[in-house]
């Protein structure tokens, strides 16, 4: 497995740069089938369509941020098991990213223009968290995933009534995020003190505000 291979600092930098570009600008490829499957695509009016696209754009950007956070954290994780866990979570987020991208296209919309910026900011936060040690690293995963779960719940309530395709994707994502949080908790996450959770909630509030439109 690649975990045993030794990468030079330059190798690592190039791998990270490639990941950053692929995640924030490229088209992700899912390993699992899209949970929307063959559910009917409802005929939404213009306003509902725009609203559903805004919510799915938020979710898409949220997944870009999650990947950047985990890859940043993994870059400085001290323990190999923690690094592997972070990279595995990042891999599952790729499915989420791909499914949200699919749904945006079905809604005749596109991802946020600012994804490279969100990626850079989240990567920096991931690095900072990772440098504080693995307990913090895992604590960040728990807090991120719990906050994402809460906002996915909001979206399930707010999506247009007939939009079962978006809902199916969000339900699967929500179950995955809960599992990511549980695993991190079991692996020894420490509880993050205030004001960190509050600051995380504030920055995701800002992201949601912008990504809903742009
Ligand atoms: Fe996710
Ligand atoms: Fe997750």
Automatic annotation (TrEMBL):
Details of cofactor binding: Binds 2 iron ions per subunit.
Residues that hold Fe cation 2 according to the record: 93, 145, 177, 180
This protein's record includes keyword Zinc-finger: no
Chief place of localization: membrane
Functional pathway: Cofactor biosynthesis; ubiquinone biosynthesis
Residues reported to bind Fe cation 1: 63, 93, 96, 177
Cellular location(s): Cell membrane
Membrane topology note: Peripheral membrane protein
Keywords: Cell membrane, Iron, Membrane, Metal-binding, Monooxygenase, Oxidoreductase, Ubiquinone biosynthesis
Any one Gene Ontology BP term: ubiquinone biosynthetic process
EC class (word): oxidoreductase
Classification via SUPFAM superfamilies: Ferritin-like (SSF47240)
Top-rank taxon: Bacteria
Cofactor: Fe cation
MF GO annotations: 3-demethoxyubiquinol 3-hydroxylase activity; metal ion binding
GO-annotated cellular components: plasma membrane
EC number(s) from the headed UniProt entry: 1.14.99.60
NCBIfam families for the chain: DMQ_monoox_COQ7 (NF033656)
HAMAP family documented for this protein: COQ7
Family listed: Belongs to the COQ7 family.
PANTHER family tied to this protein: 5-DEMETHOXYUBIQUINONE HYDROXYLASE, MITOCHONDRIAL, COENZYME Q10 BIOSYNTHESIS PROTEIN 7
Name by which UniProt lists this protein: 3-demethoxyubiquinol 3-hydroxylase
Organism, as annotated: Arenimonas terrae
Lineage, opening ranks: Bacteria, Pseudomonadati, Pseudomonadota, Gammaproteobacteria, Lysobacterales
Gene expressing this chain: coq7
């Amino acid at each position: 497995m690649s975990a045993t291979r030794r990468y030079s600092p330059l190798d690592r930098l190039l791998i990270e740069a490639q990941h950053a570009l692929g995640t924030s600008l490229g088209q992700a490829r899912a390993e699992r089938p899209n949970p929307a499957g063959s559910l009917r695509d409802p005929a939404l009016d213009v306003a509902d369509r725009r609203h559903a696209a805004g919510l799915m754009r938020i979710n898409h950007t949220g997944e870009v941020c999650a990947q950047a956070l985990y890859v940043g954290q993994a870059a400085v994780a001290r323990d190999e098991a923690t690094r592997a866990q972070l990279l595995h979570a990042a891999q599952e987020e790729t499915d989420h990213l791909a499914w949200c991208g699919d749904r945006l296209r079905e809604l005749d919309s596109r991802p946020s223009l600012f994804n490279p910026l969100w990626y850079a900011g989240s990567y920096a936060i991931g690095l900072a968290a990772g440098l504080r040690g693995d307990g913090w690293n895992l604590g960040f995963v728990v807090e991120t995933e719990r906050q994402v779960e809460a906002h996915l719940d909001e979206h399930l309530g707010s999506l247009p009534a007939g939009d079962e395709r978006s809902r199916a994707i969000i339900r699967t994502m929500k179950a995955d995020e809960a599992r990511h949080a549980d695993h991190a908790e079991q692996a020894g996450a420490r509880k993050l003190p205030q004001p960190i959770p509050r600051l995380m909630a504030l920055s995701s509030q800002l992201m949601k505000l912008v990504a809903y439109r742009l």
